[in-house]
Amino acid sequence: MKKETLFIIAGPTAAGKSALAVELAQQIGGEVISGDSMQVYRGMDIGTAKITTEEMQGVPHHLIDCVNPWEEWNVARFTEEARRIIPEIRARGHVPIVAGGTGFYLHALAYGAEFSPEETGGELRKKLEERSATEAGREELYEELSRVDPAGARQIHPHNIKRVIRALEYFYQNGEPISTHNERLRQKESPYALHYYVLTRPREELYRRIDQRVEEMLESGLVQEVEELLKRGCRRDMVSMQGLGYKEMIAYLAGEMDLAEATRVLQRDTRHFAKRQLTWFRREEAQWIVWQEGESLADQLEKIRNSLLKNTPCN
To answer: Looking at the chain, which terminus has fewer C-beta neighbours within 10 angstroms, N or C?
Structure first.
């Protein structure tokens, strides 16, 4: 049975994935599915560097602005929605392109991961979430994960409590580390004719772009965006509010640090996040595109064209 084509444009934050996905979609008649775990939330635009209507350039985008910040969103919901959308895109005669930096989401979709109802919620998750309500509780959960799944803990930032809880939940439900599960999943063959690209930049250039992006977020009203979310009832213990940009600005608004320190912490943590993203993607069977200084968006598209001429899907 012939596999259907699926493009993935992955990579670290600030590499230029969204722009490349739009350019590719315009060239091949594609539609873009967001593979970002934060851009799905309504009202969280600046801190997530959400693509704007102008930047979409008429290309249809999916899984952006789908849920409120206080609603549940996880890998199971992402894969379920993406698998529903992909055939709809094909039925319109278009090509599905998944673009984003949430490696776990992209991998689960690319390799057909299945999630049981027990893995997507329930009493165990509620108990873990209750324990994560305080900073001490979050630290305790990460230490617990480090004991039962040290390899998995090394792949997760201690502040990413959503993934910490998910990893502990998986361990206690299945009796094995989630890192073992992920490695087994990597051995699976993709159900798609997969064209998986990881877009990145030289490290110093990437870090410069990250620092600049943070400054632009603040100039665009990140603090005001967070204030509005708090007025709407969002709390700092919500998964959505644990995202980069939001937890730092909440700390600033709570008087725990001044704006200069919050900015420095956000820039530092975003650079660290990009480093972890690159570590994840190095384990994937993907083709890498390095956007060198002085190159254009058209140059990156030409690299994709050249790889397609070789007719080498990743799996």
So the answer is: N
Quote the pLDDT of residue 294: 92
Q: Which of 154, 187, 220 is the last residue of a domain?
A: 187
Position 237 in a domain: no
Quick one: how many helices (H) and strands (E) in the chain? 14, 6
Do 137 and 168 lie in a common domain?
Answer: yes
Domain that holds residue 118: 114-187
The answer to whether residues 139 and 159 touch, using CB atoms and an 8 Å cutoff, is no
Give CA–CA dist 1/107, Å, rounded.
22
DSSP characters over 169-238: HHHHHHSS-HHHHHHHHHTSPPSSEEEEEEEE--HHHHHHHHHHHHHHHHHHTHHHHHHHHHHTT--TTS
The contacts of residue 277 (CB under 8 Å, 6+ apart) are 11, 12, 13, 101, 103
Residue 120 pLDDT: 52
Other C-beta atoms closer than 10 Å to the C-beta of 4 total: 14
Burial of 138 (0-12, 13-18, 19+ CB in 10 A): buried
| CA 124/CA 80 separation, integer angstroms | 22
Q: Who contacts 241 (Cβ-Cβ below 8 Å, separation ≥6)?
A: 69, 229, 234, 235, 247, 250
CA distance 159 to 161: 5
Q: Has residue 258 been placed in a domain?
A: no
Q: What is the per-residue pLDDT across 219-232, written as a single tens digit (0 to 9) for each?
A: 999 999 999 999 99
State the Cα–Cα distance between residues 48 and 36, nearest whole angstrom. Answer: 9
Query: 75-91 and 103-110 are packed helices; what angle lies between their axes, rounded to 10 degrees?
Result: 50
**42 plus 172 within the same structural domain:** no
Report if pTM > 0.90: no
